[in-house]
Request: fold
Amino acid sequence: MKLAVCELPDGLDLDGPAWLRLVERLTEQAPDLLILNEMPIGDWIADRRGFDKTAALRFIRSHDALTDVLRVLPWATFGSRPIKGTRLLANEAFLVSGGAYEPVHHKHFFPQEEGWYEADWFAPEMGGFDVAEYQDLHIGALLCTELMFNEWARHYRRLGANVIAVPRATGALDTKWRAAGAMAATVSGCYVVSSNRSAHVTTHCGQFGGEGFVYAPTGELIAQTSAVDPVAIVEIDLELVKEAQADYPCYVPELRD
Reply:
């Protein structure tokens, strides 16, 4: 089974060249599943303090258009999008396959610092960290900052996950993000697959780093995107997941309260 990760530019437009090149590339290489970056359409909304209802509704509408496009593509897509919540927006992980849209998870952990004032904009409306199913895949979602919380990677292993999808909108793939991806794979025995927003020049939000990645179930980095090649496609082997989940450290019993 083939999975695709990517880096897509800040300010992405569905009629723009970056999206059209992505669709063309994937049409040629025919992956089974594409992982999109976190809320990929338009400019990043959480670079400013204070919730703005007009901006929030505009952000929702732009992602409504995205899901309409995804429904007619021949591959399945896993991503995240803003939806209207009780007070704020919710950042909803979703799976689109066979024309159907499935809500999977709402982001629970939010940074609050310059460029990423997410706690001003988002709150979960859906509880839990549950697994979505597509063909032979059992997919858990860790949206961006959630990758830093290894307990949820272990949780997904207990639910039978074999892939953890990580849509991101972050800076460069530095020590923290490399360590988080490698450890999530190591403690879960899952493939950890992530796409990221990119801006290889300084933007209003600093610099988005691109560098989508794939970590093997044993924790090795096996694929990475770049500005030169913004798409990476890997063939995954689910037998390797079974082997990793039966090996150290996955087999070690966990303490229970």
The CA atoms of residues 13 and 42 lie 6 Å apart.
